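Ticket #4471: structure output looks truncated?

Reporter: J.K.
Steps to reproduce: submitted the chain below (126 residues) through the standard prediction queue, then opened the result file.
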Amino acid sequence: QVYLVESGGGLVQAGDSLRLSCVVSGRDITLYAMGWFRQAPGKEREFVAAITWTSDTNYADSVKGRFTISRDNARNTVYLLMSTLKPEDTASYYCAVPQRTFSMRNLDRASSYDDWGQGTQVTVSS
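Returned output as attached by the reporter:
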């Protein structure tokens, strides 16, 4: 059984930064892509960022240049550093991992992932 636990969310002001963490247990993530998604109330879950097993990264246009995804395989952890936060970044943030190793394509699609965390809330006040 794979478990993903996100942390690091909170209430911040516009312009502040936060770093989210996602600790994975039950699977060595070294050979797996990892993704971050978010969901605001009344909206569909949307892609935020992904990182391949080779540490190639991909970002949604809305966060490009402000967010940075990274991984620490030794700690089985993926991070999302969020800078210059905006009120529209307010959402629950989820990390996810696919079932297959070496995934390199379609990492911006929620359907590419099989296991998800429970989410961490990020609220950005104006």
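Triage note (M.O.): checked the attachment and the full token line is present. The radius of gyration is 13 Å.
Status: closed, working as intended.
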